């Protein structure tokens, strides 16, 4: 993210006790990107809502339809091979998803083109409206030019001065593509002192020069153009639906048309209100930053005098004053003076910004997630609702993290209302996720049917947002205290935040969809959805990236305590624990072979697993006390997570080494046996199922112990001063610290890779031998169509539940399809048994889609 504030004017590292509002990404840039993202989403919605209007006009915008896919499958079932029928049906539905996606995003390029055209043409329009006068030789103009040149000394920015007869409102800077103009009213230049400009004109010019120094002129006119581009796109849509509503009322058509029309109107109006709010916040914030920069120049005192001078206010009705405040793009003089007195106000974590970010995220996920669901099967699960959530959530997460970094930098030790901020972000997501959906059901439509799951889902979303905000605050506090290059560290932090929040948002999507996947409601669904979420691939990705970034900052500290003194401790502890696990497992295996306790092996193995979990919790308590303490719970959680990831990264080897080693020792320890054992150990890292299952257990045990250890140390510290655990130990050198950080990074990478590969791997379900047996035993045309469709619907679970389909009765579902009276369903089943290169996810998706399209499911 580019900071519109001038980088050259700010020091590279934060100075303790001094706040520099231009060090990190400014609130202007954050709000600008929020506006652009919201405008792009609004354009997407406009494109969707144009489709019903076009359809009413008799124009078919979709080249492919589900009816066409069904007809082609029925025609092909009689003359084509089974695999050809199945592949053709899946490809047809994939084309539908692609066409819907194109229809959704087609309005985006149109909005972008309108925005760029407005941005380029705006300076020409202003040139005509301002009516500049020719006064090149005027002494006042020469003095103004000298003032501008002095203010931009050393800057590559070039600006031409235009004198006007009063149309600039004092002074105004505008331009595009690096060509800027500064329009100045001739009447303002009349005030002169000693042959030069007076203090008030100089203060006004310094304010405009500050806009150039802050590099927000382009952002200003891109903001205005984005708003007008959205209005030109949404305005005709609203006008069309108004006419449609009037026509519906006049002709007495179905109430369904009227409801669709009203929903479209409300959605369009709310989109414009959201964009207007975002636009006003961008334009007002830029004025504050220009004031702050201009206050540091020679005209800063005069600027304060101008703002403090009372202005006559014409009497106006309350609604006029309210409307003036809504559409005004200059903040009030009182608010500008407050910001000049304390620029830290600019860095406050505003709930409005977080709500706008949440609304945008929820709205775009609602539509693109539906399309991703259709496109997922045709693409071999390469894309889908969860993948869409990770990508879109990542973009929003970077902006949210920038807000948090600014807030923490402005008040490192001050109180932060992260709970309220998380409520604003989560509430915005739920509002955006409740927008009427033409492709399916929005979140709010399911609340009356599932009130308890909706409440549970909302609370879980709030908790995840709170955890993310606190993590981002911990990152900012940790790195801004030790980094020499604040901007570079912030850029890396925002990249990590994008990955973390995208994965966190994906976790909520998995949990929420799991709650609503059943027809009824029981508390057991919460447990099932929670367990499915814990076993999903976004969890290790989110935790791994979050832990690595924080721990790398903790390892750079020189406080003589915890990870800052001995960053190698959690890595060595994890390696030692893994070695102990391997030794215990080898002893157990050897005793089972030699001592005759083979019948009790499963019981002893389970006891060993329980003992390992207890030891993980105990060592987590020790590490939590070592790294934690009062105000350092985040440090403790991060340190114990590094320890847990180290153990998990070694877990495949811990299991295979004792098994293979014991076998080779019993077989005479031949070189060929050891070579085979080495291959088996390496191959163990190709299957991450056990790591994916053990990950939440080990992390939960370690974090529980870390909380106990950190709180215990905090209680002891209140009673009496204690000597740090790491006190007196030699501090590692810089090269050793880098090696430690590399080891801490490698462990989560290995664990995340194992979990992701295992979770995303396509599963064919039935081995080839069993497929052949089923094909030989099935009696054709013995299952009616309704039963086959019901079985297909039962076995197809949408990918939002676990991002892969776990068939409830895979073999029975295949049998029902092959034995179906319906020729197309039977062809689908036979193609699968014949070895078609598809997974059972695609099989049951195709069968369920066919049944729903023909009214049989």
UniProtKB/TrEMBL annotation:
Which segments cross the bilayer? 32-51, 100-122, 225-249, 255-275, 346-368, 388-411, 418-435, 455-476, 488-511, 531-555, 567-594, 600-624, 636-655, 690-711, 739-761
GO-annotated molecular function: metal ion binding; metalloendopeptidase activity
GO biological process terms, alphabetically, are: proteolysis
What keywords is this UniProt entry annotated with? Hydrolase, Membrane, Metal-binding, Metalloprotease, Protease, Transmembrane, Transmembrane helix, Zinc
Which cofactors are reported in the record for this sequence? Zn(2+)
Checking InterPro entries in the record gives:
Peptidase_M48 (IPR001915)
**Stated name of the protein:** Peptidase M48 domain-containing protein
